[in-house]
Amino acid sequence: MEPYQLTATQVLSKFKDGSLTIEDYARSLLLRIEKRDAAVQAWAYLNPEYVIRQAKQLDAVPLEKRGPLHGVAVAVKDVIYTKDMPTQHNSSIYEGDEPKLDAAAIITLRHAGALLLGKTTTTEFASTTAGPKTRNPHDAGRTPGGSSSGSAAAVGDFQVPIGLGTQTGGSTIRPGSFNGVYSFKPTWNSISREGLKIYSLILDTIGFFARSVEDLQLLSDVFALEDDLSPKDDFSIKGARFALLKTVVWPQAGPGTAAALEAGAKLLRDQGAEVDEIELPPEFDNIPEWHRIVLHSDGRPTFLPEYRIAKEKLSPFLADHVENSCKIPRAAQLEAFDGIAALRPKIDEIACRYAAILTPSVVDEAPVGTESTGSPAFNSMWTALHTPVVNIPGFSGDNGLPIGLSLVAPRYHDRQLLVVSKAVGKAFEAGGGWKRQVYS
Amino acid sequence: MEPYQLTATQVLSKFKDGSLTIEDYARSLLLRIEKRDAAVQAWAYLNPEYVIRQAKQLDAVPLEKRGPLHGVAVAVKDVIYTKDMPTQHNSSIYEGDEPKLDAAAIITLRHAGALLLGKTTTTEFASTTAGPKTRNPHDAGRTPGGSSSGSAAAVGDFQVPIGLGTQTGGSTIRPGSFNGVYSFKPTWNSISREGLKIYSLILDTIGFFARSVEDLQLLSDVFALEDDLSPKDDFSIKGARFALLKTVVWPQAGPGTAAALEAGAKLLRDQGAEVDEIELPPEFDNIPEWHRIVLHSDGRPTFLPEYRIAKEKLSPFLADHVENSCKIPRAAQLEAFDGIAALRPKIDEIACRYAAILTPSVVDEAPVGTESTGSPAFNSMWTALHTPVVNIPGFSGDNGLPIGLSLVAPRYHDRQLLVVSKAVGKAFEAGGGWKRQVYS
Prior knowledge:
2 copies of one chain form a homodimer.
Chain A: H1 8-16, H2 22-40, E1 43-45, H3 48-59, E2 73-77, H4 104-111, E3 115-120, H5 149-156, E4 162-167, H6 173-179, E5 182-185, E6 205-210, H7 213-222, E7 241-245, H8 255-270, E8 274-278, H9 287-302, H10 304-310, H11 316-323, H12 330-351, E9 356-360, H13 380-385, E10 389-396, E11 402-408, H14 414-431
Parallel strand pairs in A: 2-3, 2-4, 7-8, 7-9
Antiparallel strand pairs in A: 1-3, 4-6, 5-6, 5-10, 9-11, 10-11
Helix pairs in contact in A: 2-3, 5-6, 7-14, 9-11, 9-12
Protein name (chains A, B): Glutamyl-tRNA amidotransferase subunit A
């Protein structure tokens, strides 16, 4: 197996036993990118010299002084500030901008020894659904999803083991599904969002992409995610109880998602789990509309500076937020903000009865074209409710593209959710029918 | 009257009628600062050459191309990023740090033509109550309050007409009271907090200091603050109905605040207002403790990066947040977060029955010494509830130092609150007994 194919956990063990240098690893990734970049175009900024320089510095650090991610390559969504690479938000207003500031997450990753590979593409300010240049590695005629397009595609295409993303609607879970990787939106505000461009304070959440749950657990250690009760890493599907939830947006689900949800539930049942289909109380039906209202109203102050200095360079969708073109009254904004807030403890109470809630990640496989990054319909609710979510790959749609399913837990049960995700991921990857491939 | 004594509104009219250049104005302010800086020490960074350079550039802009704040000097709290001045957070970790990034508020202010005078002192990360070097301009032996110490003191001492601050507990309203100026904490998230160092996402709010309500209205225009109904600027105290609220922390009020609250209510009644003393439902009594829990738990992810890279340079209070030394369980954190959220619509419903709620700004006049910036006891509730608050000066304590009172309105009634504040400010400044002085 080539070094570029390794997960973070795997490559760390090779660094530790001395069978691979970080520089050789970095060169393997850079070669992989060189080979595949024309097809996938995941990168907004990548400087091979900077990567090799970091790798050499990391190689020079003695083993006993190394952090938990020492040498592991990480891709950074281009709405997260990095002091030695530009941060451009896919906005011509910020073309070439390099603010000399590391986001909180970047400080933590560097301290843990991560090798920052480059900046990955995003939709404009991670706030629109108009795709960047990036293609789905499984089918270049399709979107990789968004807004964390590049991080998801790069991880899916073995160009990097770990990708940083963000989610305000469905920007981490949806591209996770479209690219056939694990993606993880932790509990809101459990990781500092400092240095991440704002869309909506109450919604924006940092997210991660990886090709294994072990890698997500590694990141959770680095970011000090802690539940009240640390779960044992021996979860068994047998005897566990899952909720199956279609949600109010179920009519939007396509055949691929419908089949995946059925197959997922069957795989769990086959391994001895109880899977209860549940419905949420009717007040949860307001969430899609409330999410839309919060997004549009929060966009009003958020994009005021860009609107003032360069309205013509701002997408009309975002300029409309500033102008409040939808004429959302403050009263409606507050009703939505408070309405969602009141449902957070209620979903926790429901979710804590189960090992996890199993629910769709996407309406279907990645749509054709790169104009639109697809629908976040199945994700916005969990973003609004602040719950942790993991996309579990393993299924595929009518055209053979990957489809994942979401597992959801109560807030601050992130570690428990990852333990469950590991077992469920094994079951879905083994029995779901879709196999991860290394394209050449 | 010397130019440095002018409010923003006053100086703008002089720029417009050609009776004052921006450069002469800037030189007047710099002279004032030179004279008073040894006593007050409000500045974390001030470069006179940079100020004069800006002033000359601003003078060169023709009248018809000028923005609404053209030439008005603004002081910026040193937790807000400015790309041409260092941003150091009063932390040795960030000594000399100068990220090339303007906070959202700075972009908007520059676009409106503001002259950025310098960076003002703050407590460490605007997150502790240990005072910076700054002294109260009314008594050098006393604190100016915090955490927005420098901005409040500089405005109070006629070194600048407008100061930018922030509030997570009482960091804008309390120093407003201690320095005898108007201070304004708008509705949470009504102005973008992008580029402002995070303590708690759900609490941190940008705030302003000025010596007149007109200046706060000017800023509200610049930042596009809008209520559902734009209020007419002809509010009359006569016939209006105010609530007088002592809150659950009233036992902490000292004699100065007790007298000021009584005098304030009397002044309103004397002018023909109805002032009804109200009590909040008992669930509001939880807020002080809930605020503390949210602060400590939000500090956990917030200061993780600094803890990792330089724990020894972080105050023990903040290191304790990261270590969760108070052992706050996630369940308690969520109970506090959700509990406060549930009270927000309830306070709006109560507050909307009145022109404003009149309530203390501080426990008393500024305490002796600069070790502690004083207690935010009377402010934290409103920060947590997201309501707009204005500190109205006009009263004084046993030692002759200024004491203000807070006016509070429902969320997104900021413009209405400012209209009411203008009338109330006139009454309190005329009849409250404390007079603003220019110290030499």
